[in-house]
Amino acid sequence: MSSSDQDDAPDGGSGGEDSPLFRRRGPSSADVAEVPVSQSLIKAASNVCFSLFVLAVLVVTVVAVTYQPPDPWLQSSAAITTSLSRVLPNSTFLVPDDSLLPTGEDFNSSSSPAIPAPAREDPDDSASAVSSAPALNATACDPDAPLNCSDPRVLAAVKAFNAKAFLRKSIIFLSYETPVPGPKPGVCDVAWRFRNRREKSWRRYRDYRRFSLASGDGCTLEIISVGKFRSGTNAARRQPQRKGSKSPRVKTPPVDAEINDTIPVVGSEAEFKKGKYLYYMRGGDHCKSMNQFIWSFLCGLGEAKFLNRTFVMDLNLCLSGAHTVDGKDVDGKDFRYYFDFEHLKESATVVEEGDFLKDWKRWDKKKGPGRITVRKVPSYKVTPMQLKRDKSNIIWRQFNGQEPENYWYRVCEGRAAKVIQRPWYAIWKSKRLMNIVTQIAGRMDWDYDGLHVVRGWKAQHKKMYPNLDADTSPDALAEKVPKLIKPWRDLYIATNEPFYNYFDKLRSHFHVHLLDDYKELWSNSSEWYNETTALSGGKPVPFDEYMRVIVDTEVFFRAKTQVETFNNLTRDCKDGVNTCNL
């Protein structure tokens, strides 16, 4: 009999070995089946149930402690659209729009905290730090020979230096190019490709720096000094000199050879007639805010994907007065000034409207088997679901009504909102603008803090923002910001405040940087200027207010410590009075 059976036996029964009954006969199988075993099974079952209960309590406790509400920006296109639908009205965009709507590269499965703890200063991060390369072919090298920049030891020394100097910065090195001679002996210019951890896209950028090297012990090489961001100009890729140029001594600015935003074309008549197209005629969204344009454009792109059709897009944009200095709309802008057309082509099937209309007119036969079939859709009330089985070559949506009936995004309202998923992943910011962002952050050696100061019309609107103006005054900033950021750090201020000297009181606490400190990056001698001028057919492109918003915001997002207006500086709500909890 088991010990548990003995404990459960009643007094005076078969519970002890000295009992006469125990000595007289052993326990029968019936006794074991009726009492001890049944009780053991009940006890075992109760133990299992209790264990499951304890495990469930632990699981619930862990989930309750660690759970955070899901961030819709880091989820699918459907979740992103649902989140934006809560704040973007269905019929019109009423609030003055000077903000930056996130684009595809902002939506990723990995994110960093909004205000990370600033990294501790590393004394080895100095550009004058000395780095040694291991000896290569020590028996064959001559320490007294002139430095050959193509020597593998040079690149090894540069890699070792970068790995140490950028250890605590947000740079991931991808590849290096062969070092080239600098302007004098002992100096080499080295170029490499990298990406930024704080940028969610896979984009690659270039840096090239000037390194001074000297022979160390044996055959090692030591880096004595390093130039700043893009100081190694001999390693930069430049545009080829034009034939017949009268000024060969003038160096052309570097170019980004990786940008390919040429317009795709339909190769033949047979290919054109084989295709299926969705064509949106220009509607009331033209000359509206950029945020409304993106919201509407992605609706059309999402419908084209749902219908499995090629989207016909107009590269011509009208910049709303919300993004211009004088408040007037400016037509004739190019989509490629602001967004990455190359990435769009890779993410969705699109053709340019001008070429599409020419091909349509050239290859259409009014009668017979070669006729291009067209279905005209006069109203947004014809849903994408009703067009799903349409076999026409072209579905032509016409938006001829009055506002807001002629807005593109009306197509994606109602029942269609549950079917159409806006392809946010297809829209990235322009690589040309992001190159400017990279240069600004690189000049601060990727080690700076950021301050976002919102003023403009919000500071003047006392009913919606009663405290903003006072909370972001020069005196208030001088009192609050030093408590949030370590003294004498490089501080980049992203702001819509038009007066350059507005932040002078912060200069006694920090090394202040503003966007206007980097005007040469979009001047008439810049890489950006040359590339945008080529897109515009030789006409200079002004660096407008929306471009400034993009660059300003992206530089701020790359800061180590980020101080926000509505999170850290003012009691007002971001969207006005009584909206903090919405």
From TrEMBL:
Entry GO CC: Golgi apparatus
Transmembrane feature ranges: 48-67
Keywords: Membrane, Transmembrane, Transmembrane helix
Compositionally biased residues, Low complexity: 109-118
The keyword NAD appears for this protein: no
Sequence ranges assigned to domain DUF7075 in this UniProt record: 271-565
InterPro entries reported for this sequence: DUF7074, DUF7075
Pfam short name (any one): DUF7075
DUF7074 domain segment(s): 145-231
Region ranges (Disordered): 1-27, 105-130, 233-254
Record flagged with keyword Nucleus: no
Biased composition range(s): Basic residues: 239-249
Extent of Acidic residues compositional bias: 1-10
Official protein name in the record: O-fucosyltransferase family protein
